[in-house]
Protein 1
Amino acid sequence: MTRLERKYRAEMKRMLSLPVHAASPAVYLVFGQLPAEAIRDLEILGGFGQLAMCSPDLQNITDIIKNNLEVYGEDFLGWSGLVRRTFTKYSIPADPLQYLQYPWLPDRWRSHCREIIVRFWDDKLRKEIFDKTAVKEDGTKESSLKYLDVTDLSTVKIHPVYNAAGLDSQNATKCTVVMWFLLGVFHSKSLQYKMKKCPTGQCSCSSQQEEDIQHILLFCDHYSEIRDKFLVELTFCNTKLMKYSNDANLLITSFLDPESSKLPDEIRNSWTSLDNVYSISRDYCYNIYKKREKLQGSLEINQN
């Protein structure tokens, strides 16, 4: 299961054009996808529900499962032991034997199990992200996921950033860049330096500050022309932003996730058009990314 889960995560990140070091709990939630383990457990419980309502010609299989459930516990290596362990894992009330004696309709049973499994994994993944983003008492911890709002995210619905991109391939490409910033995996010099892939985390602009996400999106003079254009457009979509013009993290969150619960209510409720905001966000992040790629290419040529 561990190897399958690892391969499953890698494939999901590849599909989203995310690097392998992107936080897996966050990827499951933004992509609206259950982990492989959860899907396996749903199949186990779904199969159990089918057996409980099986046709007469399969009754002998049901009898075997019933006998094993009566004799063996969770440690049993057979299928009945797997069922018991899955019941315990998700705190499903009552004993599996009771469901065999008083079976549910298969569709209703599967729907019920899916609700339980989704709730379990949503809570588990959100907690893992919270543990990564929680600030220590000394205030020293800062997570790459600090801009991600997991309050309303679920393993059964895709992130609004992806929804807003729709089926347009160009929008989807731009959306990927937004998600790099939102998940804190954009390959800034600061990140590359921490990963020991760059000799310094310092930006090549005149400020010579650390090139992190905040610096790239709000302060680097390489992108001042792009920034001025799109910040004006964003402000037209929500004049309340002017009140928070000095709050860097809030401005970044407004760009990356305008419906985030991390934003004040007066901002979340004052967008003139969310479609326009998401479009501005995609264009802003993508234009910065493309210009940075061009600058990086020029620097490498000059160094050679």
Protein 2
Amino acid sequence: MAEKKVRGIPWMTKIDSWYQFSDGLYPGWHPGQSVIHNESKNIQDSGGFVSIEDEKWWCDASSTTGSWNVPNLFNSTGVSTHMENGRRHNSCYFIGGYTSSSNFTNSNSSYYFGEHQSSMVRNAIGFAVQSNCAGSHSDKGGDSQAYLEKVGMFYSDSNRKRWCLLANQKVAGDINLNSEYPDQSNKYYCYRLSSSNIAKVKDNNLVLMGMAFQFVHGAKSMARDSQCNLFNLRILVGDGTGLVNNQITNRILIADKPDRRLDEYLSNHAMDITADV
């Protein structure tokens, strides 16, 4: 199993404590594990936004940190968005299979190709991630900082059609999306899809292909640094809204390495199994 780099994801479990991100307190996860292919796009659009399956992603300015090394999003190294700005901007990052292609944002309705890669995790319904605004001018509270505003999840269905669903329902965490950091300490988010979208993931047998992150870069009257950092990302899986704490978990989703091809999944290659714990 170690050679295959198998990922264990607790079923129907929420993260409601900072300490559940590591040290085995979130069963099945270990530091450095990932489920998303290492591709990313740092988006900027002259019109101010791009549309992905009818959802607008605002990105009128580009982060100076370039492309993300996606595996670092799943460990303590983390990833960042940064700019020196004298007025408010939005930045966006898309990660996962296909996102590095120029075609990913060219069409509001798009299809994956058979060679696009992922771990093919099914029933992905949310995320948890640790975060701070270190590197911002206002890292102790204030307007000249960056913060996470919106998170989406990209899927493929059995026809390779791309889906984009928002994880906008708070499950736990000591900060809300679209909120400034009150101080320089580390925070965490834990959000899931809406109830209707969780049903869509289940009923349409959607597999996780990637994620979208939209940030606000606030500003003062003079150009100052604004930065937001994300690290130790975790994916939540399940087929309903009744998420439980880690001590109640009774099933683990075992996901394959994050570079399986979509055509393997569509030809019924075994991608994941469940195991009792």
Protein 3
Amino acid sequence: MIPGFKTGPLSWEEGKSLVLNEKAQMCEIWFRVDKSEEYNEYFKWLAKHQITIGLHHWAVCKGGIKNNLSTHNKEVRNETIAQIKESINISSEYGCVYVNIHPGALFLEKVTLSPWASVLMKNTKPTEETEANKLTLEAAIELDAYAKKKGTMLFVETIPSSECIVGGDRNNVYQPQNTSLEVMKDLAREGITIANDLAHTAAFIENNTTPSKKDLWQTLINFTEATHAATKLLHVNTLQPPYNGTDSHDGITDENFAAGVLPNEEQMKEILGIFKERDDIYLVPEPKQNMKENHLALKKMVAEL
């Protein structure tokens, strides 16, 4: 297992400190492909320090429409594919090991990335579920082949079932019918590499149900066990209530575990234990704050395993 950290334009200095002072050796970059030139100097700095890099692709289609590989809207889907291919090109150019992407949804959404805000598009017809699943698989296969041709890897990440309209307001949400965990299992069976965001996976609920903490844990561990062979990235995150399909982006420090997050500390060790013999899986925490503390907690947990 390869523990790393998350960094991006708002946290370059923190990332540099983790490399210089904590000897971190791997990072995932929050990467806006439309602003790719802003990352060039940091890519060079990381290369100078021999840091393994992964990219987490972010982009917005024309008209402020959220990237979507699952939609029957050809313009949005084709633009999404083209933008992901551009991230793959940049990944190849700078020697990054992977590009991590979110798949899609039945509904189209309007989104701004910074500050985050999103909403369902009105008066648009959702994609029929069977067609969306087919389109998702076709796009993933195309992009996976393109990444391999360019000498990098494509990862498709689990996503929660609900989205916050503004920032982290988890009481103001909507359901765009995001790519389900069952479809993610289908992708894994077809040879697509999976990024299992633990909080996203735990947060995925069906049909606006109100699951118990035990139910969410069972969903998480079952999915992780079913897809472990196809998984090469874990976003090592935890979840706090409300359990309404959204992610809280909590961490893995003692303080987080004391607050009763899901998975708890023992459950997190159980999940990581599934991968403890693997030297090809990247572990990246994505807390709202305290990246240093979370990176160190992750390294400690891995060492104990």
